């Protein structure tokens, strides 16, 4: 414990003699010092924090988290889940400190008030200058900066996002006055929390929440104000009020940029609620370093396995493809050709088990659409997988894919067996972390634009909703 | 025949043995976790290996409903399907007919019942049961028996069931298509009637085609001492060189681990019970003193591990307080508690195995029982059963 340290990869720092770095995707390292490790632990950014329920992954036990890449032990923690009758003392009374309460032993915990999957700010009660509301296990619950500070003291996270008056950016006609009020409140609460937590022995890092709703001007003004007045005390910035149902697209991208541009280049930026792969691309492109992976949890609970290729096929793969159909197509013709050849055999599921990711991917995706999946995921409830001996994603190296067939996961879902969610969660988190790793590789190689274009075009082609 | 049963040591009536199953051997005395539909609730097969589980049970009735034995066979059998390299055992499907369905009708041919899925009349015959179990492909399969609740009131019904069970064993043996890969166990019926049990044991023991035996027809609500008397009687007269399996220790009995130790003392080798994993999901943990109810208010401020003597991941990393807050609310808490409860039972069995090998089993059971019942309140049925095993407390 003792807060987080985030370092920008020097390649992305401002050029000599300049004070600002160029905008866009960037690499960094997030380092913490967990109580149960001999030394500091660093994870590469951009990365997605694991979604938790009451401080731990909903379906995974610690040994299952061990099967995931190291980054998966970086947890997003929603305070809302804790606000039941037990109170903060229940956590802080743990001998040795509240952090030891968490048996899963995350290497990093970032606390925010709300759950990224539920946007409680739509509650009927209105926030006041003194409090906001979160959806707790026992209903909508009031929370003040005092409560929040007490919880931070109890849970002992490495970092937290200060309490925010979130004003969703999707509601047309939210009065600018209200948006400005939200920014002002959020800043006031930030100042209060900086004061209330500054003497905590665990020295948690503080992230400021940047508001401004759907208004680009106000986004920028809010960020500038907070940087100017509190910048030196802050470890990072959280871009608030997104992922609340707003339309993805250029407007949202401009909101992201407006919040990010005024922030100093040497501090990390976090965003909640933008977890679907295309959202991740938008966020990373705007310079976001930390995201959260509630998308994986959502997929798991709905019986989906993530089955998209994490990166464009390599040259070697494309050569193979070209040889396959003799066309120098863009993959689409290739997909059709494979489709025609193998479609009749699909129903019995006797697919070839050796195919690498990317190969035959398009035809798989076509079938996915017919069975309730989309460009990114397959619906494992679908009867099409009843006798399918292949792993969830052929070529995937996760525990689930190395040891189980689709037919088994399908069977477990059909029988409402808890193990279904465990196996899906292991795969989904593993795959999503691989996706983030591929994004980092692309940033490092200077090919992020191509990387993003590949995913956007692929999604548009398969799902037919090209928002770009 | 890959199936082999090898006695390593005996101590009094208790036995420590090795069961060679494909591909990994199991050690007895052995508790078998129940993976009704092909998975032990919330656990992966790697976790089952980490818990050092030996043999895992699957239920024929459920597996035939979903995914179906034909599909299971096509997918490579139960081992391949749930990626489990330890031992597997399936029941005959007969017990679920009694436990799940009121509308079962039993004739010489088999059991007719109404399918809970589409209401159709279905017939489970000994041949059909074996055919299904051959398809599922577990290492150990069970003969279909004529099950009568042990507290049924008509004695003529028990007589009929006993004789029919013996006739059905012959039909099962004849129908068995994979005897070199799957060991068929015969089941001893006879209710609480000593004469009938003797008849059944004698009849079944004569059959050379049965590599093992199960004591059935219990766990139907009979008194605990009656249960133990039947187990004692059957284990005394069954052949020494074959394993003995006490089927389905009744699930509502919180003293399940006492049963294991008593049955082991009486010379039984295998047991199963759904109680430990089911009760885990409702917040009850097994500990040497008995059970720990994690939902109780006192647990909210109890920062000790579930069981300070346990070596499992949950006891190493979690407090009772943490589990109190999450159990019955968050799914991973159910997995954690199931994990501990299974490890508790595996540890007990490992310990019993070792104590038998070391010829210390009597003292061990004494210590174990006294800890469960401090201040000398050992129930008479436990005392009586152990004295049948030559162990005095």
UniProtKB/TrEMBL annotation, chain A:
**What InterPro entries does UniProt report for this protein, alphabetically?**
QTRTD1, Queuine_tRNA-ribosyltrfase, TGT-like_sf, tRNA_ribo_trans-like
Q: Does the keyword Glycoprotein apply?
A: no
- Ranges of residues in domain tRNA-guanine(15) transglycosylase-like: 25-453
Q: Where is this region: Disordered?
A: 13-41, 307-367
What single Pfam family name could you report for this chain, choosing any that match?
A: TGT
Output the GO biological process annotations, alphabetical, semicolon-separated: tRNA modification
Basic and acidic residues bias located where? Answer: 325-343
Report the cofactor remark.
Binds 1 zinc ion per subunit.
Q: Which UniProt keywords apply?
A: Cytoplasm, Metal-binding, Transferase, tRNA processing, Zinc
Q: According to the UniProt entry, which residue ranges have a biased composition of type Low complexity?
A: 22-34
Which cofactors does this protein require?
Zn(2+)
- Gene Ontology molecular function terms on file: metal ion binding; tRNA-guanosine(34) queuine transglycosylase activity
Keyword field contains Cytoplasm: yes
**One Gene Ontology cellular component annotation held by this UniProt entry:** cytoplasm
Q: Where does this protein reside within or beyond the cell?
A: Cytoplasm
Protein family (similarity comment): Belongs to the queuine tRNA-ribosyltransferase family. QTRT2 subfamily.
Q: What does this protein do?
A: Non-catalytic subunit of the queuine tRNA-ribosyltransferase (TGT) that catalyzes the base-exchange of a guanine (G) residue with queuine (Q) at position 34 (anticodon wobble position) in tRNAs with GU(N) anticodons (tRNA-Asp, -Asn, -His and -Tyr), resulting in the hypermodified nucleoside queuosine (7-(((4,5-cis-dihydroxy-2-cyclopenten-1-yl)amino)methyl)-7-deazaguanosine).
The record's annotation in HAMAP family points to:
QTRT2
Subunit architecture: Heterodimer of a catalytic subunit and an accessory subunit.
**Protein known as:** Queuine tRNA-ribosyltransferase accessory subunit 2
Q: What organism is recorded for this protein?
A: Micromonas commoda (strain RCC299 / NOUM17 / CCMP2709) (Picoplanktonic green alga)
Q: Which gene encodes it?
A: TGT
UniProtKB/TrEMBL annotation, chain B:
Q: Name one GO molecular function term.
A: tRNA-guanosine(34) queuine transglycosylase activity
The record places the active site at 91 (proton acceptor), 272 (nucleophile)
Q: Which Pfam families match?
A: TGT
UniProt keyword tRNA processing, yes or no:
yes
Domain annotation tRNA-guanine(15) transglycosylase-like: ranges = 13-372
The record's Gene Ontology cellular component field reads: cytosol
Catalytic reaction annotation: guanosine(34) in tRNA + queuine = queuosine(34) in tRNA + guanine
Binding of substrate: at which residues? 91-95, 145, 189, 217
Compartments (UniProt record): Cytoplasm
Q: Which UniProt keywords apply?
A: Cytoplasm, Glycosyltransferase, Metal-binding, Transferase, tRNA processing, Zinc
Q: Which InterPro entries match?
A: TGT (IPR004803), TGT-like_sf (IPR036511), tRNA_ribo_trans-like (IPR002616)
Signal sequence range: none
The EC number of this protein is 2.4.2.64
Q: What is its main location?
A: cytoplasm
Gene Ontology biological process: tRNA modification
Key word Oxidoreductase present in the record? no
Cofactors: Zn(2+)
Function (record text): Catalytic subunit of the queuine tRNA-ribosyltransferase (TGT) that catalyzes the base-exchange of a guanine (G) residue with queuine (Q) at position 34 (anticodon wobble position) in tRNAs with GU(N) anticodons (tRNA-Asp, -Asn, -His and -Tyr), resulting in the hypermodified nucleoside queuosine (7-(((4,5-cis-dihydroxy-2-cyclopenten-1-yl)amino)methyl)-7-deazaguanosine). Catalysis occurs through a double-displacement mechanism. The nucleophile active site attacks the C1' of nucleotide 34 to detach the guanine base from the RNA, forming a covalent enzyme-RNA intermediate.
Family as reported in the entry's similarity comment: Belongs to the queuine tRNA-ribosyltransferase family.
Assembly, in brief, is: Heterodimer of a catalytic subunit and an accessory subunit.
Q: What is this protein called?
A: Queuine tRNA-ribosyltransferase catalytic subunit 1
Q: What broad taxonomic lineage does this protein's source fall under?
A: Eukaryota, Viridiplantae, Chlorophyta, Mamiellophyceae, Mamiellales
């Amino acid at each position: 414990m003792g807060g987080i340290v985030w370092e920008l990869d020097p390649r992305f720092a401002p050029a000599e003699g300049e004070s600002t770095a160029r905008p866009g995707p960037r690499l960094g390292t997030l380092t913490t010092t967990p109580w149960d490790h001999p030394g500091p632990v660093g994870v590469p950014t951009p990365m997605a924090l694991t979604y938790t329920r009451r401080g731990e992954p909903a379906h995974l036990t610690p040994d299952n988290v061990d099967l995931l890449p190291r980054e998966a032990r970086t947890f997003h923690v929603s305070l809302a889940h804790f606000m039941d009758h037990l109170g903060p003392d229940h956590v802080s009374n743990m001998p040795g400190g509240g952090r030891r309460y968490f048996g899963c032993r995350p290497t990093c915990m970032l606390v925010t008030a709300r759950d990224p999957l539920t946007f409680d700010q739509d509650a009927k009660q209105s926030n006041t200058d003194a409090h906001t509301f979160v959806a707790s296990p026992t209903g909508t619950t009031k929370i003040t900066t005092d409560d929040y500070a007490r919880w931070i003291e109890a849970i002992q996270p490495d970092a937290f996002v200060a309490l925010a008056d979130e004003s969703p950016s999707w509601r047309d006609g939210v009065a600018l006055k209200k948006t400005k009020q939200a920014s002002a409140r959020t800043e006031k609460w930030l100042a209060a929390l900086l004061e209330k937590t500054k003497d905590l022995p665990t020295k948690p890092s503080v992230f400021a929440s940047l508001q401004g709703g759907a208004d680009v001007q106000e986004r920028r003004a809010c960020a500038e104000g907070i940087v100017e007045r509190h910048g030196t005390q802050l470890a990072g910035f959280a871009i608030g009020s997104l992922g609340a149902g707003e339309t993805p697209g250029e407007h949202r991208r401009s909101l992201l940029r407006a919040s990010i541009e005024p922030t100093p280049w040497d501090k990390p930026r976090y965003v909640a609620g933008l977890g679907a792969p295309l959202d991740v691309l938008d966020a990373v492109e705007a310079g976001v370093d930390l995201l959260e992976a509630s998308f994986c949890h959502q997929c798991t609970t709905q019986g989906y396995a993530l089955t998209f290729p994490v990166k464009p096929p390599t040259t070697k793969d494309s050569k193979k493809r070209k040889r396959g159909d003799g066309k120098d197509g863009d993959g689409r013709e290739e997909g059709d050709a494979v489709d025609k050849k193998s479609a009749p055999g699909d129903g019995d599921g006797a697919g070839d088990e050796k195919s690498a990711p990317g190969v035959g991917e398009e035809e798989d995706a076509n079938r996915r659409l017919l069975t309730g999946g989309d460009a990114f995921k397959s619906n494992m409830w679908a009867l099409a997988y009843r006798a399918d001996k292949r792993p969830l994603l052929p070529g995937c190296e996760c525990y689930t894919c190395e040891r189980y067939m689709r037919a088994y996961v399908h069977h477990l879902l059909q029988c409402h067996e808890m193990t279904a969610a465990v196996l899906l969660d292991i795969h989904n988190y593993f795959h999503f972390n691989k996706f983030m790793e591929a994004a980092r590789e692309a940033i490092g190689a200077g090919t992020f634009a191509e990387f993003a274009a590949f995913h956007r075009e692929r999604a548009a082609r398969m799902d037919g909703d090209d928002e770009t | 025949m890959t199936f082999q049963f090898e006695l390593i040591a005996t101590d009094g009536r208790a036995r420590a043995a090795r069961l060679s199953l494909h591909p990994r051997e199991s050690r007895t005395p052995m508790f078998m976790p129940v993976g009704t539909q092909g998975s032990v609730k919330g656990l992966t097969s790697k976790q089952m290996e980490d818990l050092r589980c030996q043999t895992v049970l699957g239920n024929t009735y459920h597996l035939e409903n979903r995914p179906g034995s034909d599909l299971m066979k096509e997918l490579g059998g139960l081992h391949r399907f749930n990626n489990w390299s330890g031992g597997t055992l399936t029941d005959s499907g007969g017990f679920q007919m009694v436990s799940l369905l009121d509308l079962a009708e039993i004739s010489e041919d088999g059991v007719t019942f109404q399918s809970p899925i589409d209401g159709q009349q279905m017939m489970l015959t000994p041949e059909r049961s074996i055919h299904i179990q051959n398809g599922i492909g577990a290492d150990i399969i069970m003969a279909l028996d004529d099950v009568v609740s042990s507290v049924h009131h008509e004695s003529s019904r028990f007589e009929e069931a006993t004789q029919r069970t013996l006739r059905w064993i012959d039909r099962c043996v004849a129908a068995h298509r994979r005897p070199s890969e799957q060991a068929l166990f015969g089941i001893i019926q006879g209710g609480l009637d000593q004469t009938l049990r003797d008849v059944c044991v004698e009849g079944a023991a004569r059959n050379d085609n049965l590599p093992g035996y199960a004591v059935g027809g219990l766990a139907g609500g009979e008194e605990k001492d009656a249960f133990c008397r039947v187990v004692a009687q059957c284990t005394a007269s069954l052949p020494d060189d074959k394993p003995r399996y006490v089927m389905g220790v009744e699930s509502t009995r919180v003293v399940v681990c006492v049963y294991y130790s008593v049955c082991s003392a009486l010379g039984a080798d295998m047991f199963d019970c759904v109680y430990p994993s089911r009760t885990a999901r409702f917040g009850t943990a097994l500990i040497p003193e008995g059970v720990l109810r994690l939902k109780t208010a006192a647990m909210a401020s109890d920062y000790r591990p579930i069981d300070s003597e346990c070596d499992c991941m949950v006891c190493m990393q979690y407090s009772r307080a943490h589990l109190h807050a999450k159990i019955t609310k968050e799914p991973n808490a159910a997995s954690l508690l199931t994990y501990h409860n299974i490890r508790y039972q595996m540890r007990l069995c490992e310990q019993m195995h070792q104590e038998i090998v070391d010829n210390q089993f009597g003292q061990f059971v004494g210590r174990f029982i006294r800890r469960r019942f401090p201040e000398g309140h050992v129930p008479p049925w436990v005392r009586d059963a152990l004295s049948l095993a030559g162990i005095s407390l």
